[in-house]
Structures are given as C-alpha cells and as structure tokens.
Please model this.
Amino acid sequence: MRYPAHHCTARLTAEVQRISPSSQIFAPLLSGVPSFLVPPTLLSEPQAFLQLLTIGRVTRLVAVPAFLRLLIAATIPNHHPDPLPPLSLLVSSGEPLSVGLWRELCDTFLGVRVLNLYGMTEAAADSTCFDPEEAVRVGAWACPHDPDAHLPIGCPIQSTWVALVDEDMQLITSDDRTGCVGLGLSWVWFGFRHAASVSSSEL
Model:
C-alpha cells in the first residue's frame, strides 16, 4: 500500500470509528508519515482543533464536510488570531461536498489542495477520488454556478472499478437510466468477523 508522503509533515484524522476506511488509518503510517488521532471532545472546539493542527505542523487533514464548515467559521480573525495551520492537502469524505464549501475551503486555506473521496462502508476504504482543481484545469469538469451543487465522486482509485448497475446487478449503459453504484476491489468485506449482530447494526 503506497501513500504519497512527499512534503507531508504530519497527517490528522478528525475522528476514527470502527468502520473508518482502513487505508485512511494505516496507509500514512506504513509510509512513515506521523498521524494524529484527535479525541472526540476536541471536535466540539474548532478553535482548539486549529491550534492542534498548527502546533503539530499538520499538512494533511481528513474530515467530513460538516466539520470543515466549523473550521472555516473558526478562522475568522476575531476568533482565531493565530496563523492558520500549514495544510497542503485537505480530504473531504463521508458526506457530499458542495461547490460552495469547496470554494470556501480554497479561499480560507490558501494553497490547499482539496480532494473529494467516496467510499462504501463494505469496502473499508475510499473507492473513488475527485480533484476539482485538476478537473477544471484539464477541462474535464465545468464547475456549476450553484453553490449547493455537489462535486462528482470522481474516478476509481488504483485497483478499484466502479459501475452503475440495476436491481439485477446488470450493467447500465444507457444515459437515461438510474441505478446503484457497483464496486469491485480486492478488499470488499461482508461484515465484522464473528460478530453478526454488530454487522447487522453497523451495516
């Protein structure tokens, strides 16, 4: 498992749960990148959270959009007079990321690269990735004017394939049909080992 550790000082995950993507937790560590796991109590104190980012020289952050909004609000000069953390990569995952929030993140954390990652619980890892800045640069995506519009989920990451399937698990090839996202990769899992009750409640 490879992790792009170049110019990465430290990485922080806002919250880890039992079903958190395993790649988000272990890939940085396997590449020699220090990782911070934040206690849940700090998630209700965005200003203290930002201070932790700065003190730890955290350059990469993984968080859900709802929490990212709280961080933006906490960066108002009157509330957070200290320098902002040196973030270079900000990964949004777990919830849809709106165009408006993406723009606010870029305006607040200057120079940061924002990625929108999508992954299914059963995969135990992120499955697709969308880089809006790169997509705009190469002309692959026309950014909507509506700030409430959602960013695409992007393209499959390495060793993963994604397809649109119908209720019979058949591929959908017509543009005028809707279906479900089908995911194929080597580490799809069916539940917690020897814990059927946990699997039924969590999945």
